[in-house]
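Hi everyone,

Forwarding the result from last night's run.
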Amino acid sequence: MAPLPVKRHARRPAGRPRLLALLLMAVGLVLTTAGASETWREREVEVAQPTPPVAAPTPDPEPEPDPEPEPERSVVPAATPTRVLIPSIGVDAPIEVYTDTMVAAAGGWIDPSTADVVSWWQGGGTPSSEPDNTVYLYGHVSRLEAVFNALHTVTPGTVVTVVTELGAIDYEVQEILEPIDKQALPYDERVNASIPGRLVLIGCFREPDQGRRPTTHNTVVIAQQTGMG
């Protein structure tokens, strides 16, 4: 009887370990490649992540500017007044000194020497930036031209400037009193009160139909020095 032919598949067992090894190698390559790919992806992700912005340093706050210094008040020492200005009624007149001796010689009256001059009673206060009494100025009112003809028309808020030998003082009109009888004027407490920084302007009061008749009343304007306090 002829021998059985050798079957080629009879050698398969010997080849299986090689195939298995190849398969294992292939799997290993796949796993290795996959691991390398994953590592690359992670690295790529890491590189692709934006770097957090670095916060800019907070600048130091700018120092606040020093407050503006208050303007210094000009100091005007007490001195003889030389001129009075009331622009709203067109007054720009020289001032003369009227002493107590002159008052006594006039029988207790103040009578300015001319119609265009104002008399400062020296027995009252002296204009100053640091006053201690009421300043008194007197002027004529006439049916002709005179310095205080329009005094009765001033209103509260009107500015009066008294120029002295050493500077100028501003006053603001506070009140215009009703005409006061000349005989009662020296005793009127509103007029003769000693108030630092106050200015009293006095002129005759003329009725609309006064004509040549002598006046019997006075117009009195009270002002207060500005910039005090």
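The two ends are 151 Å apart (CA to CA).

Cheers,
N.
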